[in-house]
Amino acid sequence: MTEPQKRPAFEPPQRLLRPISADPDMKRPASTVAGTLLVLLRVIAGAVLLIEVAVHWSNDPGSLSPALADLDIDPQIASAGLATLIVAGGIVLLIDAMLAVLIFRGLNWPRVVVMTFSALSISTVFTAWWVQGQEVTLRTSLLSLALDILVLLALSSRSAAAYARRRERA
Q1: pTM of this prediction?
Q2: CA 44 – CA 142 distance, rounded (Å)
Q3: What are the boundaries of each domain within the chain?
Q4: SS3 sequence, 48-99?
Q5: Contact status, residue 93 vs residue 46, Cβ threshold 8 Å
Q6: pLDDT at 169 exceeding the cut of 80
Q7: 32 half-sphere exposure, CB direction, 13 A CA radius
Q8: Does residue 109 carry a pLDDT above 90?
Q9: Of 73 and 143, more confident
Q10: Mean pLDDT (the chain, rounded)
Q11: I need a labelling partner for 110 at 20 to 30 A (CA). Which of 61, 73, 116, 126 fits?
């Protein structure tokens, strides 16, 4: 019995850029399933965050951020702000859930969109940490950061790319 070959730690660009063989009957790989589940976990985490914001929302802007403590905001405007936040967040979560379904079905463009937004999210957290000294903790951005990194790893795998591009013509 032959042992599977290990992949080298560094692969030449010519090998990485070689087209992936297209197999229209390819079974859904575990990396695609894992990526879909991670995107859905990200949606659930976002829904929990929106619920927490709605439950703990007060009409005092200082409770949200010390920078807003000096502002005198009308309670009706604060309520409208909460409603806008919940609706906008819900729409974003709905779009994310729809992208997860499309990824599971094997489309390539939602996989690329989700990976792009994950990379932007990771970059945003890094920039906030680097420039503003914002801590990465469980209460702030650790959960979303971890999910974004795992989504990026799962959906950027060769098997996920091959599955998403299995019907493309050469």
Answers
A1: 0.80
A2: 15
A3: 29-56+74-164
A4: HHHHHHHHHCCCCHHHCCHHHCCCCCCHHHHHHHHHHHHHHHHHHHHHHHHH
A5: yes
A6: no
A7: 25
A8: yes
A9: 143
A10: 85
A11: 126
